[in-house]
Amino acid sequence: MDFLLHHIEALIFCSPNPIGLAEIKSCLSEMFEADIPLDDIEKAVLELIAKYEQDEYSFQIIRSGGGFQFLTKPAYQSSIGILLKQQSKKRLSTSALETLSIIAYKQPVTRGQMEQIRGVNCDYAVTKLLEKELIEIRGKSDAVGKPLLYGTSEKFMDYFGINSLDELPTPKDFKEEENEIGRKDGDS
Questions:
Q1: Which of 92, 98, 101, 126 is the most buried (most CB within 10 A)?
Q2: What is the distance between the alpha carbons of residues 110 and 138, in angstroms, rounded to a whole number?
Q3: Domain check: are 133 and 99 in the same one?
Q4: Distance of CA 182 to the CA centre of its chain
Q5: Whole-model pTM?
Q6: 92-123: per-residue pLDDT in tens?
Q7: By residue range, what is the domain housing residue 54?
Q8: Nearest-5° Cα angle at 16, 10 to 22
Q9: Of 74, 102, 130, at which residue does a domain stop?
């Protein structure tokens, strides 16, 4: 029964939404190529619920939305709230991501070049990226007015989990979707 318990625990853990008994049964039946009795699954889920009710765990299994899922216990809401608040500050807007991608691929690049590519003013996005230390000023261009040149920083590498700019995806890495809107089958 332990093997069944562990598989059910893994399914509940990895499911992004509450997972119901029928879905657990379906997964297990396919996995073991045998019909798993619903009573055994329900019994295992109840054992898991009891296991995670113990104080040694900071999370528990909750019945929610017609299924089961792991959630943090209420006693830990404050620390989770702080983490989520800090992470939301790290998120980048679409305009910041667009501007950052231009900088990453075209660096060193001036603000004027970014705006020419994007077609809109990039002042706010550049300011936010500088504040988050994802980009840095790399010097001044020889062009008229000596505009600043921008490039990515070491923090950019950490943020995206890469070790060098060579690891950025190339255009050939982006698979073109088949039958996109506005295209006929067979058009290239």
A1: 126
A2: 10
A3: yes
A4: 30
A5: 0.52
A6: 889 999 999 999 999 999 999 999 999 999 99
A7: 2-74
A8: 65
A9: 74
* CA dist., res. 165 & res. 135, Å (int): 13
Regarding whether 129 and 101 lie in a shared domain, the answer is: yes
Same domain, 70 and 111: no
Whether residue 83 lies inside any domain: the answer is no
Q: How many CB atoms lie within 10 A of CB 182?
A: 5
Q: Is the pLDDT of residue 54 over 60?
A: yes
In a 3-state reduction of DSSP, which class is residue 69? strand
- Residues 154-174: tens digit of each pLDDT: 888 888 878 888 888 876 665
At 10-49, the pLDDT tens digits run 999 999 999 999 999 999 999 999 999 999 999 999 999 9
Residue/partner pairs of 125-132 with CB below 8 Å, 24 or more apart: 125/93, 125/95, 125/96, 125/98, 125/99, 125/100, 126/99, 126/150, 128/92, 128/93, 128/96, 129/92, 129/96, 129/99, 129/100, 129/103, 132/90, 132/92
In a domain, 43, yes or no: yes
Q: What is the CATH number of the domain that holds 126?
A: 1.10.10.10
